Amino acid sequence: VKKIVTSDTKAEDLVGVTWVVGDLRFGRDISDSSFQSSWDDDWHFVDEDVPVQASGIRCVEGDLSISNTKSTADLSPLANLAVIEGDLDISFNDQLTTLTGLDGITTVAGNLIITNNANLTTLTALDGITTVGGDLEISFNDRLTTLAGLD
């Protein structure tokens, strides 16, 4: 088991990781800093796109958050991901146009939140999801005109 210190986490630390115990967050923190202390066990990659080194991850036991990234337009490094045992939150990613790369996800045990992605045009990569255990929120994605992919 490899312990990662969140303040010094680098993309290289994901090499060989297939199972994440706890939360995994990509992007800049936009939440109230008073909540930061509760993230002590998260793997938090500040200001990074989803790195290619994430390609081995198959399960996240906590939440997966891809929020407020600078230039994430490619989620393909997450192509092997199948299960998220917490929430999947994809929000405030201005460059994101598609969710391609999330095609392998079958289960989101918590909430599925897709909000404020100004250029997102399709949800078709989510058609493999058979279970969402919590709420489904899709809002404020200005260029999204259809829910095709959630069939």
From TrEMBL:
Entry keyword Kinase: no
Keywords assigned: Cell wall, Glycoprotein, Secreted, Signal
Family annotation (Gene3D superfamilies): Receptor L-domain (3.80.20.20)
SUPFAM superfamilies: L domain-like
The organism's place on the tree of life at top rank: Eukaryota
Localization, UniProt: Secreted, Cell wall
Chief place of localization: secreted
Full protein name: Receptor L-domain domain-containing protein
